[in-house]
Hints:
By secondary structure, the chain is of the alpha/beta class. The radius of gyration is 25 Å and the shape is globular.
Amino acid sequence: MSAIDSKVVKAACPHDCPDTCAMEITVEQGRAVRVRGAEKMPFTNGSLCTKVSHYLERVYSDQRLLYPMKRIGRKGEGRFERITWDEALNTIAAKFREIAADDPRAILPYSYAGTMGLVQGESMDRRFFHRLGASLLDRTICASAGAAGWKATVGAAVGADPEALVDARLILIWGGNPVVSNVHGWRYMQEAKRRGARLICIDPRRTDTAKKCHQHVAPLPGTDGALALAMMQVLIAENLLDHDYIAQHTIGFDALAERVREHTPEWAASVTGLDAEVIRSLAREYGRAQPSMIRLNYGLNRCAGAGMAVRNIACLPALTGAWRHAAGGALLSVSGNFPKDVRALARPDLYPDAERFPPRTINMSNIGEALLKAGEPPLRAIYVYNSNPVAVAPNSNEVRAGFAREDLFCVVHELFQTDTADYADILLPATSQLEHRDVHGSYGHAYAVSNEPAIAPLGEAKPNTEVFRLLAARMGFSEALFSETDDELASQAFNRDDPRAFGVTPEALKAQGWVRLNLPRPSVPYAQGAFRTPSGKCEFYAETLAAQGHDPLPAWTPPAESVSSNPALAQRYPLALITPPARNFLNTSFANLPRFVQQEGSPKLEIHPQDAAKRAISDGDRVRISNDRGAFHARAVVTEDIRAGVVVSPSVWWQKLSGDGENANAVTSSALTDMGGGPIFYDCLVEVLPV
Length: 691
Ligand SMILES: Nc1nc2c(c(=O)[nH]1)N[C@H]1C(S)=C(S)[C@@H](COP(=O)(O)OP(=O)(O)OC[C@H]3O[C@@H](n4cnc5c(=O)[nH]c(N)nc54)[C@H](O)[C@@H]3O)O[C@H]1N2
Ligand SMILES: Nc1nc2c(c(=O)[nH]1)N[C@H]1C(S)=C(S)[C@@H](COP(=O)(O)OP(=O)(O)OC[C@H]3O[C@@H](n4cnc5c(=O)[nH]c(N)nc54)[C@H](O)[C@@H]3O)O[C@H]1N2
Ligand SMILES: [Mo]
């Protein structure tokens, strides 16, 4: 191989995962031939997950969209014909101009985390839609419920230092399956285990993670808030408290103590389906171990009471003073460490005529409803990028009905012909991470990671930014900021007046591929209090919640659908369905590629032997999972890994590739969480029958 034709390009994994890996791409003769994890980046540590280590199969897949197309069949049918970029862009611009003349809010951008890059995910796209005056999108589909509960209690989205937890004595892995969805973070937990930490996993399912922990505690879905209240009751009743920390760095302790008095382990046992003694000893162990770390994750964020549940859990380390230690406290997200410069990147100030068209925000989590109802104004166009709503949003029947509207103008910009793409009027080909420039923060570590383009765009694929530049020109948006290059956008990603970004320069990022934020090492965010709440303290009592009409104190918010909270519904649909991430998929990304589909096999439903026997279901049987919203099919896996009363279907499958044209979101509800307006995917009663 001649040296001139071979190079190694520094890249970032773009997917929605806390690990945000730094990658190195070997390129020969203009073709990427090898992808590996950057060895020197501490968190990545030279390894990639099972999906991204085969990334070239995604980049060079023969399923890639390579040309713009327009629809020739019915909506949803997926029949298209090739057109030029000129025709595609002119069609979109003409339609947007026509709609905007009446009311630009009838146009809705729809995007989530197909790429987490700040350039391709939240820069030129945001500028374009802000300038247009389109409806704003509330991006709630993943993390907003917990974020709200955390914020009310702790303040900023800043938790314990993920690299410091190696010195914890006790780690509660709460509502997460890091062996599958946070593998690089799991490495630190394993190191803690080697150093003598006890690991306890709190999850209705005996996951691969639970199997590697010392103890598995399996509450019913959506009952974590009750478990945390009872833990607080025990800590307070048995005086397992750090009185000094409470006095100096919290507010509302007396009211909290009063509130949780009734929430005994016996009470929580009746709600969570756990033994009172298990709850009591969990609380005692937590109260006595220092440093103790709670790695809470998104599994408990997908139920009606999710905001309050995260809030209740977030109170625990302030009671025990665990925050004093580098390896103590709690960790949900550390995204708030990154001083992302939203004003520069997204330019919300471009919104044109707020007087005539007061900004309107639409919640992405019930997009079906938003498309179907006669809003003010009704939605007439949707532009989807970085997301696959038809497959990932709850209550698919409603979502598909919305996208099937003949009078809705739908643009989809994608790498693949997803379930959503089938509904496009204009389908545009997108570049992969190897074909464009980007820069990334992370929600699971403290390193900014840079992504240089490694190869030329495949076919006629274009990056998101480029499409919005071209559309801006056709719309007559003449501001210079619409011609900024991706390099220029990348250099605005972080607010460089913020001390945390000192050293995180474009030059340093380019040279090394990644740079740690300028934070102390380890960073111990709340050792001296300094919570970023209005009071500067950990708020057991939160005035901000009272002002929003919520209970200002930790409370119990039951699931919308469960045997105890909705017995009438449970008569007909007695089983609680959860649909957490499958190891070989990343939401619906990878779920169309042969290697990963083969590894997952086919849609599965894990069911406890008792529940299976009652329904004459044997292992391997095809079953139908249904409720009033819809139905999907799967292969039964009869196993004691899931507790009785709960069934699990690892997700998210493509509807059109799963045999019956449906995935688990056929049955999930579009109701919203108590805080943050998030979806309640795992708050869902069903019946399961053999077919
Ligand atoms: N391989 C892979 N990795 C992923 C993803 C993927 O699809 N595949 N998705 C990425 C994304 S977008 C996200 S948001 C994160 C998600 O990251 P996590 O939230 O860590 O998701 P999971 O790893 O499934 O862990 C959730 C766990 O919560 C459990 N659970 C479900 N309901 C409850 C409940 O009510 N209480 C408790 N205590 N546990 C419950 C589930 O059984 C599951 O084991 O992972 C990211 N990483
Ligand atoms: N039942 C159930 N449903 C769920 C979940 C669950 O656990 N259970 N998890 C939920 C969660 S946590 C999340 S975060 C959401 C995720 O929902 P989404 O963010 O919609 O995630 P993906 O399904 O991976 O779809 C992302 C799409 O973006 C495309 N893409 C990638 N890069 C680019 C790019 O540069 N440009 C353009 N234009 N497109 C690009 C990909 O090809 C992919 O099709 O799903 C939610 N849905
Ligand atoms: Mo997510």
